[in-house]
Amino acid sequence: MTRGPARMPLTPRQAQVLTAAATGDSLNEIGLQLGITRERVSTLLSEAYQRLDVTYLPRGQRRPEAVRVARLRGLIPPAKETP
């Protein structure tokens, strides 16, 4: 069961960072891709985790669950399929 409201919106920047984070890249790599600092990436992801209500999970499970929930709710694009 998914926790939280059915569609808690993300800001455009939170959605952009979460989409980039879905690849598993480090905070530094995401920051370089988006032209922002590692600290800003961390802050945006933390805010997204709160909006998606996944902060109750252990640290290592937050990112993949946030990506899953955001995709399920249509807040970020689906994963690209590889041939």
Tell me what you see in this structure:
The chain is built from 4 helices and no strands. It is mainly alpha-helical. The protein has one domain: Arc Repressor Mutant, subunit A (Orthogonal Bundle), CATH 1.10.10.
End-to-end CA span: 31 Å
CATH fold label: Arc Repressor Mutant, subunit A
CATH architecture identity: Orthogonal Bundle
Unreliable stretches covering 5 or more consecutive residues: none
- How large, in whole angstroms, is the Cα Rg? 12 Å
SS class = mainly alpha
Tell me the total number of β-strands: 0
Indicate the CATH class.
Mainly Alpha
- Sequence of secondary-structure elements: HHHH
pLDDT averaged over residues = 90
Largest sheet, described in full? none
Assign an overall shape: globular
Q: Output the number of helix runs.
A: 4
How is this fold's topology laid out?
Layout: H1 12-21, H2 27-34, H3 38-51, H4 59-72
Helix pairs in contact: 1-3, 1-4, 2-3
List keywords for this structure.
single chain; 83 residues; mainly alpha; Arc Repressor Mutant, subunit A; 4 helices
Gist?
The protein has 83 residues and is mostly helical.
